[in-house]
Amino acid sequence: MVLVEVIGISVCPPYQGYVVILKEKEGERWLPIFIGAAEAQSISFLLQGLEYARPMTYDLFAAILKEGEIDIRSTTICDLRDNTFFAEVELKIANGEIRRIDARPSDAIALALKSKAPIQVAKKVMDGAAVSNEPVNRSIVEQIAYLHQKLKECVEMEAYEEAAKIRDHIRSLETRLTDTDLPGMGLSPEGEA
Predict the structure, then answer these.
(1) For position 13, what pLDDT does the model report?
(2) What's residue 191's pLDDT?
């Protein structure tokens, strides 16, 4: 397994869809996965440390698991078949038993972020679908990830004018990301299981 971290959410203009970008912790490869708009918003809120006024679905699941004394051990992007990513959430039941539950990658990622559980990708998936260390794309993705962190800081400090400028800059960078910029992103927005 390859440990990864979520470095951001991007817009993919040709499809008007969203992409969650995972980066391996001990390497230079990136794994882009198409997700829906609602899922992108949820993951973005989690990355920024923001909360909705009322619980979201991932909040509900995390609360139910906690009440049932079930720990989320990890989430894994475990397979890629027919341009569809598959994920599993690994749970530890109160009696010590380990269970794996099938999930959409976006749900598994949101749950991992909420519970601060590790996110990993099966080696065969990373080897087959990851984007290598391509300088232009890496630079843009790193800029977006950095700006998302700065945006979070501005919102926390209530510096909303600066936050709006950063948000606009993020959007301008995201429009530069297209399916020709990031090889392996030729999936449709339904490319997630």
Answers:
(1) 58
(2) 46
Buried b (16+ CB within 10 A) or exposed e, 33-71: bbbeeebbebbbbbbeeeeeeeebebbebbeebeeeeee
pLDDT at 54: 86
Look-up: residue for tokens 């490319």? 191
The ranges of the chain with pLDDT < 50 are: 135-136, 138, 178-191, 193
Q: Which helix (H) or strand (E) holds 20?
A: strand 17-24
CB within 8 A of 135, min separation 6: which ones? none
Alpha-carbon distances, residue 98 vs 89, 91, 92, 95 (angstroms): 10, 6, 5, 9
Residues in contact with 138: Cβ distance below 8 Å, sequence separation at least 6, in sequence order: 28, 30
Domains, the chain: 2-174 (3.10.690.10)
State residue 178's pLDDT score.
Answer: 43
pLDDT at 37: 82
| DSSP strand pairing (2-12 vs 119-121) | antiparallel
Inter-residue contact 13 to 182 (CB < 8 Å):
no
Residue 123: predicted pLDDT: 95
> Hey, what are 127's tokens?
């080897």
Q: Render the burial of 127-148: b for 16+ CB within 10 Å, e for the rest.
A: eebbbeeeeebbebbeebbebb
Taken in order 8, 75, 17, 176, is the CA torsion positive or negative?
A: positive
